[in-house]
Structure formats: structure tokens, C-alpha cells
Write a structure and sequence with these properties.
294 residues, Rossmann fold, globular
Length: 294
């Protein structure tokens, strides 16, 4: 999920991520956004005739929420969940069994980008928030494009809009806290990218990158994730978890006033805190870029 959305705030001012530790946050976040991803998968079904899609690769599949949604959307396909973290792949297998998709959702352990070549051919490749963890995004796209069967579709989920969960002014500290957190996170994200093996700077022009990979761009769409106030307990819990991670990972980078605001927000006893506020919501958008092999 992109820098704004999938809670990749981890560690104390470092840019290493323990994906196993992040499993609950990743999984709950993807579950909450399932309606958005169902819409995206339905759109892909218009671009790639459902009956013709027999093998799907979910590259950087995490806990497998989207792998299972893709299996629902493409009922004739084998969906291969590809990830480098064994615990996430095990969770994918559990989820697939629970949803009676165990025969069609399989897992493949691979470190990326080195493992791309061994993934085999596919009619649809879905890469959601995984390419920005690879130093050479352009090179990885070219390799993925090479796996597509004739007419096959590559869908890259990157970008969208920053998530908002609080009103601009919410009664604690200076208004605009989430925008300032986004700015700090953008610096963190740039450091994370610069520290990746083989890191290369490229403009995030995904249409141009897909075309450079030899594919024919076939449309870009953004999908809204809109959970207005009042939120369910599950959404509130996800918001608390996300802000807790932000406080742990980015706290030292934030202004002292904003750290103090976060501490109040995370205090279960504070009537203006996240545990008790009636005005929490969740609003974001995810962008899907697609291109086809001629």
C-alpha cells in the first residue's frame, strides 16, 4: 500500500520494516479497504476479459487480502501470492482456506526483484504498493512486463491521496496535524527509497514507466475509500493503531507540540482522544495504473 496509506511507519527513526510485526496493521487496513479493491478488480475485469484470465500474480501480496479478492473477481484463474515474508504467506494460505479459495490461491516465496524471473507467465499481474520498495522500479517493471502473456495486463497500485482521519481543527494543538505528519513522512519515505539496494531516482510517471517497459497504457483510475463519521469499532481501532505507529516511528522527527498532541490523542482517558471522539472518519483514494502487452 503507498507511502500515505499502508502504515509503513516502523522502527525508531530508521527505515527498516519488520513486515511480520506489521501483519495485523496491514491485514486490517486491507480488509477495511476491500470495497475499494473490489471496485478496482471489477474494473480490471472490464480491461482483461474475465474468462481469459487463467493465471494472476499478486506481487508483494502481504497477508493475501487482495489475492483472495482477485480470486473472487477472476473465477477461472489461479492466483499466485508472491511475497518475501513467510508469515505473510502463511496468513494468505489461512485466509484462502477460510474463504474456500485454497485450491485457487497459492503462494510463492520470493525476494524481489531477484525472484521476478522465476514467477512464470501470467494474464494479469497486480502490484499494489510493492514497487516503491524496490530500488530500481523501472527495471522491475520491465521484468514484470516480460512475464505477461500476449494481451496480458499489468496493474500497478501506487499513489492516490493521503489518508485523513481527523478534522483539520480538532481541539488539540495546532490545526493541520495530519498534513504535517505527511510532510515528515515524505522525508522518511525519500530516505527509505534512497537506502534501497540499487536505488535509482525516477519520476513517478507510471504511464510513461509502463510504456518504457514495452507495454501499451490502458487506463488509470482512482478509487475512493470513504468511511464517514461515526466509524465502527474496527475502524476506530485501526486509526488508533496507525497513530500509535506514527508516534513510535516518526515521533522524534515531529515538532514537540505535535508529539504532545499525538500523546493526548492516544490517551484512552482523554475525551478529545481517538478512543472517545465521535468525529473520526477515514477518507483516502488509491490510484491504479494499467498497461497491456500487445
Amino acid at each position: 500500500m503507498s507511502q500515505h496509506h499502508h502504515g509503513h511507519h516502523h522502527g525508531h527513526d530508521d527505515t527498516h520494516m519488520d513486515w511480520n510485526e506489521m501483519l495485523p496493521l496491514l491485514e486490517h487496513g486491507a480488509e477495511l479497504q476491500s470495497p475499494l479493491y473490489r471496485q478496482a478488480a471489477a474494473w480490471l475485469g472490464e480491461l482483461a476479459p474475465v474468462a481469459g484470465v487463467r493465471r494472476v500474480l499478486d506481487v508483494g501480496s502481504g497477508p493475501g487480502v487482495q489475492s483472495c479478492l482477485l480470486a473472487e473477481a477472476f473465477p477461472y484463474a489461479e492466483v499466485v501470492a508472491v511475497d518475501a515474508t513467510p508469515e505473510l504467506l502463511e496468513r494468505t494460505r489461512q485466509r484462502a482456506r477460510a474463504e474456500s479459495l485454497g485450491e485457487r490461491v497459492t503462494t510463492h516465496h520470493a525476494e524481489l526483484p531477484d525472484g521476478i524471473a522465476g514467477l512464470g507467465g501470467a494474464d494479469l499481474i497486480w502490484a499494489a504498493d510493492s514497487l516503491h520498495h524496490l530500488g530500481d522500479q523501472r527495471g522491475a517493471l520491465a521484468e514484470l512486463a516480460g512475464l505477461l502473456r500476449p494481451g496480458g495486463l499489468l496493474a500497478v497500485v501506487e499513489g492516490g491521496l493521503p489518508t485523513r482521519r481527523l478534522p483539520h481543527s480538532f481541539g488539540i494543538g495546532r490545526p493541520g496535524l495530519e498534513a504535517r505528519i505527511d510532510a515528515v513522512h515524505a522525508d522518511w519515505f525519500a530516505e527509505m527509497r534512497a537506502g534501497l539496494p540499487g536505488a535509482k531516482e525516477d519520476v513517478d510517471d507510471w504511464r510513461a514507466l509502463l510504456a518504457d517497459a514495452g507495454l501499451v497504457p490502458s487506463g488509470t483510475r482512482s478509487f475512493l475509500h470513504d468511511l464517514p463519521a461515526p466509524v465502527t469499532d474496527a475502524v476506530r481501532e485501526q486509526i488508533v493503531t496507525t497513530f500509535t505507529r506514527t508516534r513510535d516511528a516518526l515521533g522524534e522527527r515531529l515538532a514537540p507540540e505535535d508529539r504532545a498532541t499525538l500523546d493526548r490523542l492516544l490517551d484512552p482517558e482523554d475525551p478529545l482522544g481517538l478512543h472517545q471522539r465521535p468525529d473520526l472518519f477515514m477518507l483516502t483514494a488509491r490510484t491504479v495504473h494499467t498497461a497491456r502487452r500487445g
